[in-house]
Amino acid sequence: MSEMLKVAVLGANGRMGAAAVDAVGEAAGMELVAALGRADSLEMLRDCGAEVVVDLTVPSATEANVRFAVEHGMDVVVGTSGWDAVRLESLQALLADHPESGVLIAPNFALGSVLATHFATKAAKYFDSVEIIELHHPAKVDAPSGTALRTAELIAAARRAAGVPAAPDATETELDGARGASVEGIPVHSVRLAGLVAHQEVLFGNAGEGLKIRHDSFNLGSFMPGVLLGVRTVGTRPGLTLGLDGYLDLEG
């Protein structure tokens, strides 16, 4: 790679994309070579010599964007949702044909959020009950959030590995959705409220005690250190990495 890392941002007209454009433009050792909106051709990525592409677009576009970048020798940092098991399997097959390329798919770039999910996963086996509440602005198009889904999946895996039984719940009748969405047996409740940005609480309970692990993003600036960490690291981690925790030293 060149001394100045050449970075392109897709989805540059969105709120998150615009913040990433500013962050990359101000970051040491990076050169913003393209800021593409929905109507711009992906060929511009090749023409400008982009080395790392940051995809902050929409679920309907992200898979094609990542495929184009990988096929043209670029590394990719993805903050767009919509990567289900089928899409991930297809991406893994693509990366097998391009073993030099790195792709990071991160449901959340806030370092505090990544740490909160890690702490919750560590605590999961010690409590009888666990539920998740995620709270976001009303313009968010998906529910539950990608962060909540990943948190629930990691918690469920930790509880299975430790042999923790299902949480006690005597509910027999309920209004549809009253107990939230069940993600691998973990109830996840979504709140959409004006004035919020991105917030998550993981609630644990035992007889006589409770533990709450909460993270709050109050503005888009909270995500930019994680975006920049991803941009700086993805080229050194060939293959697919799911979650920014893969780039942090969280073990030990």
TrEMBL record:
Traced from the root, the source organism's taxonomic lineage reads: Bacteria, Bacillati, Actinomycetota, Actinomycetes, Micrococcales
Question: What species was this sequence derived from?
Answer: Arthrobacter cryoconiti
- Note the Pfam families from the entry: DapB_C, DapB_N
Q: Which reaction does it catalyse?
A: (S)-2,3,4,5-tetrahydrodipicolinate + NAD(+) + H2O = (2S,4S)-4-hydroxy-2,3,4,5-tetrahydrodipicolinate + NADH + H(+); (S)-2,3,4,5-tetrahydrodipicolinate + NADP(+) + H2O = (2S,4S)-4-hydroxy-2,3,4,5-tetrahydrodipicolinate + NADPH + H(+)
Note the SUPFAM superfamilies from the entry: Glyceraldehyde-3-phosphate dehydrogenase-like, C-terminal domain, NAD(P)-binding Rossmann-fold domains
The protein's matches in HAMAP family, at most eight in alphabetical order, are given as: DapB (MF_00102)
User: What family classification does the UniProt entry report for this protein?
Assistant: Belongs to the DapB family.
Q: Where does the record place it? A: Cytoplasm
Tell me the function of this protein. Catalyzes the conversion of 4-hydroxy-tetrahydrodipicolinate (HTPA) to tetrahydrodipicolinate.
Q: State which pathway it belongs to.
A: Amino-acid biosynthesis; L-lysine biosynthesis via DAP pathway; (S)-tetrahydrodipicolinate from L-aspartate: step 4/4
Q: What is this protein called?
A: 4-hydroxy-tetrahydrodipicolinate reductase
Alphabetically list the UniProt keywords. Answer: Amino-acid biosynthesis, Cytoplasm, Diaminopimelate biosynthesis, Lysine biosynthesis, NAD, NADP, Oxidoreductase
Annotated positions binding (S)-2,3,4,5-tetrahydrodipicolinate: 137, 146-147
CDD domains, per the entry? DHDPR_N
Superkingdom per UniProt: Bacteria
The encoding gene is dapB
Active site: residue positions: 136, 140
NCBIfam families under this entry? Answer: dapB
Subunit annotation:
Homotetramer.
Q: What class of enzyme is it?
A: oxidoreductase
- Binding-site list for NAD(+): 11-16, 79-81, 106-109
One GO molecular-function entry:
4-hydroxy-tetrahydrodipicolinate reductase
